Amino acid sequence: MFKKLFIFLLLLQSIAFAQDIPPKTNPPRFVNDFVGGLLSQSEINQLESKLKAYYDTTSTQIAIVIVKTVQPYDISEYAFKLGRTWGVGEKGKNNGIIILWAPGDRKVFIATGYGMEGSITDAYSKRIIQQDIIPNFKELKYYEGLDAAVDKIISYAKGEFKADPDDEDGGGAFIGILIFIIILIIVFYIIGKNNKGGGNNRNRGGGGWIPYTTYTGWGSSSGGWSGGGSSGGGGFDFGGGSFGGGGAGGDY
Questions:
Q1: In a domain, 221, yes or no
Q2: Does 4 reside within a domain?
Q3: Is residue 227 part of a domain?
Q4: pLDDT per position as a tens digit, 191-227
Q5: If we measure between CA atoms, which residue out of 79, 81, 82, 65 comes closest to residue 31?
Q6: How much is the pLDDT for 204?
Q7: Which residues contact 217 (CB under 8 A, 6 or more apart)?
Q8: How many domains does the chain have?
Q9: For 166-187, what is each residue's pLDDT tens digit?
Q10: Looking at the DSSP assignment, which residues form a beta bridge with residue 33?
């Protein structure tokens, strides 16, 4: 009974979450302003043209989405759900990226599809947020922040920039810890093998799996959103990309 109740509540949560995700525009656009007034039409068009040109030459889809608030959800969870619901990125390539901005919460998040996590790492996303978006947003230079973020994402995807030393911080320590753990495992294995009194029991207990609701297959409810306009949309469609958990965010 408890299990059925849990599944039912989980289902209700999924439906409620889907209703809070705005539907993708028709025709689709790379710049989706569901708030209005923060970017001029000219600025929206410039961003749209840049993102469309990048898509035409690489098939990578970068979507900018502006919603008033993501409450009561965490902005990262909202961004991943949005990416999966809209299918940002090519199916099979999963090469989609979302720049999600919630001005009512003063939060911004960059979510990367599975296929982009290697080139746009979490450290890169964090650097873009901290160095390009937040400083501009604090000065109310919203277009400049988004434009700089797009340029930096494109450059990282091309391999033009390398990680700062701070981004690599802790890598050597991690390797050292990993080597130490491997040595311990080998030592305990040798001790256990030489222990004649030991049995041949096997631990069949799997690791603790924490369920994570993907909320797939729901999203078409509008939830009362009204889309801000951007001309020049269309000529493409989001192809069904998937998002897993890569990215970074920040407050301003």
A1: no
A2: no
A3: no
A4: 766 665 544 443 333 333 323 332 333 233 333 333 4
A5: 65
A6: 37
A7: none
A8: 1
A9: 544 444 555 667 777 888 788 7
A10: 66
